[in-house]
Design a protein that fits this description.
The structure holds 2 protein chains of 2 kinds. Chain A is of the alpha/beta class. Chain A is 32% helix and 19% strand. The radius of gyration of chain A is 17 Å and the shape is globular. Classes of the chains: A alpha/beta, B alpha+beta.
Chain lengths: 209, 236
């Protein structure tokens, strides 16, 4: 991600990107410091809670335990099935145990709707969620996965499973994988993207929960 | 945000001087702007007729919220020309107000609020909109519990070029063929590449972007230059 953020030196935008890098540097420093200070020992690879951009609601968070309760909140059949597929085939093979729940208490709530933006799906920790700790070990119970139906109407079943795997990964603190060819649904490159986690992703989950 | 402003001061000054010393290009582009409403004019009005930003820089950190670093965008445009073609309207304008009125989802717990701004158009590069139109644009989303107007009030006064489409419009170039008419009343940027803010004479692709693509080569050039390039893109 960082490698693509280039601009001419001395330009205003170059400065903006420099500040982005500085901000990332602060984040990295915080990650290192927190890792040293935390008993959880979060890895510096693609695992750990993080705020993307400047929106505190937007990013990836740790789950509170190995039991991951997922509430399919009036989701359409196709996306409900895709999420359940990813629960069973992507997350359950790790130490995490996914459970479908129906109620006001959940680790993750999945909603799909038409949202007027250019995203297909995203994960967030809303203001009313239960949070504890600090980045990169910040736990969020009550996360949300949003699927933007407007922009995924043409998705195949495989693409739905891949996006579901990806967003579920964020809810257990998996971050993006920069390698566009990585055998992981956590990679950003969506072309022929896998529907499950890589062995590395699984190791990150297994060693941190 | 304050850190960015402080550090950016020298560069802003340099950019301003560059703009001032290249007045030929700047004035030629500014001359094409149509004066705003009398109501919006003031003794400190800029050449475009809008009030002076009072020395404040645009709220780049607020725009930064609206990108998609952790999500997935519907697609990416490879060139400015492709983005201009994908947009139903390419306009220059100024954020007049923040009206977070659009709520998505029936359940309060999962409801999101559309950050809706009123964009006053000062120049039309492409599309059926007209100068002086005020159009509602959803620039991002936030949870209902937040005071959206307060949180994003800093956007008011920001000026730039917006590549927008009606919210429910398909984007066949990205495989989105289904229309969502209920989203139609508001517009939105085509992608996170589609907002270019005038940072006191410099162009800034303001939203946070994972894969920057073509904006990486344009970010930071003179705003007058981006105006020219957009004009060429829509004519090409």
């Amino acid at each position: 991600m960082a490698t693509s953020l280039e601009a001419s030196p001395g330009s205003s935008l170059g400065l903006k990107r420099d500040i982005h890098r500085a901000r990332r540097g602060v984040i990295v420093a915080a990650v290192v410091f927190a890792s040293l200070a935390s008993a959880a020992g979060v890895s510096a690879t693609n695992f750990g809670s993080i705020i993307y951009g400047t929106n505190p609601e937007s990013g990836a968070w740790l789950a509170n335990n190995q039991t991951h309760e997922v509430d399919l909140h009036n989701t359409t059949n196709k996306w409900g099935a895709a999420i359940q597929w990813a629960m069973t085939n992507a997350l359950d093979p790790t130490v995490m145990n996914t459970v479908l729940v129906d109620g006001s208490v959940y680790d993750v709530r999945v909603v799909d709707d038409n949202y007027n933006n250019f995203l297909t799906g995203w994960t967030s920790c809303p203001p009313d969620a239960q949070v504890s700790g600090s980045h990169p070990n910040k736990v969020c119970r009550g996360q949300m996965i949003h699927i933007n139906l407007q922009n995924v109407s043409g998705y195949t079943e495989t693409q739905r499973r891949s996006l579901s795997c990806h967003e579920l990964g964020h809810t257990v603190a998996l971050r993006h994988v920069d390698n566009p060819d990585a055998a992981s649904c956590m990679r950003v490159n969506v072309i022929n993207r896998p529907t499950t986690y890589s062995g590395h992703d699984q190791n990150m989950i297994n060693s941190n929960y | 945000m304050s850190t960015r402003i402080k550090i950016g001061g020298a560069v802003v000054l340099m950019a301003s001087l560059m703009v001032a010393t290249s007045c030929g290009r700047v004035s030629s582009s500014r001359d094409t702007l149509v004066k705003g409403s009398e109501e919006g004019a003031s003794p400190t009005a800029t050449p475009s007729g809008w009030p002076s930003p009072s020395g404040e820089r645009p709220a780049l950190d607020l725009w930064d919220n609206f990108g998609a670093p952790e999500g997935h965008e519907v697609g990416r445009y490879p060139t400015l020309r492709a983005m201009a073609r994908g947009a139903h309207a390419v306009v220059e304008g100024r954020v007049e107000s923040v009206d977070g009125e659009r709520v998505y989802g029936e359940d309060k717990e999962s409801a999101l609020r559309g950050i809706r701004v009123s964009l006053r158009i000062t120049r039309v590069f492409r599309g059926d909109l007209k100068v002086d139109d005020a159009v509602p644009v959803i620039v991002g989303l936030a949870y209902l519990q937040e005071d959206v107007e307060a949180k994003f009030a800093g956007l008011v006064g920001d000026e730039g070029i917006f590549f927008i489409i009606p919210g429910g419009a398909p984007q066949p170039e990205f495989g989105v063929v289904q229309e969502a008419p209920e989203l139609g009343p508001e517009w939105r940027p085509v992608t996170s590449q589609g907002v270019v803010i005038d940072d006191r004479g410099s162009a800034v692709f303001a939203m946070n972007i994972v894969d920057r693509g073509f904006p990486a080569s344009l970010d930071g050039i003179l705003f007058a230059e981006i105006q020219d390039r957009v004009r060429q893109a829509v004519e090409g």
